[in-house]
Design goal:
GO terms for molecular function: holo-[acyl-carrier-protein] synthase activity; magnesium ion binding. The chain has 117 residues and is α+β, with helices and mostly antiparallel strands. The protein has one domain: 4'-phosphopantetheinyl transferase domain (Ribosomal Protein L22, Chain A), CATH 3.90.470. The protein is 37% helix and 32% strand. The chain contains 4 helices and 5 strands, in the order E-H-H-H-E-E-H-E-E. The strands form 2 sheets. Strands 1-5-4 form a 3-stranded antiparallel sheet. Strand 4 and strand 5 form a beta hairpin. The radius of gyration is 14 Å and the shape is globular.
């Protein structure tokens, strides 16, 4: 059963300007393993984290660092969750989180589906 859905879109140029203007933004939003990625990949990961929170329904004290976006050996995206993010899923009975993300034509977009019994 679907327990939540979330979508987010990020304007790449605007995101890049924010990153350039605010030096502490990247370390605050992204885990160490995410930080070295190109700006379009960072924007897609930011959209993914926003979509996750929307699918969950609230942030319930979840920090950006607890939502890590990774890709498997085939390039498929997913989340590695830590701390409060993991606890929030357990509290809500969510057993699966699905993620897709893309970037093209000056935007990055992500869609999250959460499922459970």
């Amino acid at each position: 059963m679907i327990r939540g859905i979330g979508v987010d879109i990020v304007d790449l140029a605007r995101f890049e300007r924010q990153v350039e203007r605010t030096p502490g933004l990247v370390p605050r939003l992204f885990t160490e393993s995410e930080r070295g990625l190109p700006i379009h990949s960072l924007a897609a990961r930011f959209a993914s984290k926003e979509a996750f929170v929307k699918a969950l329904g609230d942030s319930q004290a979840i920090t950006w660092q607890e939502l890590e976006v990774v890709t498997d050996g085939h390039g498929n995206p997913g989340f590695v969750l830590h701390g409060s993010a993991l606890a929030a899923l357990a509290d809500r009975g969510i057993s699966g989180v699905h993620l897709t993300m893309t970037h093209d034509a000056g935007v990055a977009c992500a869609f999250v589906v959460m499922e459970g019994p």
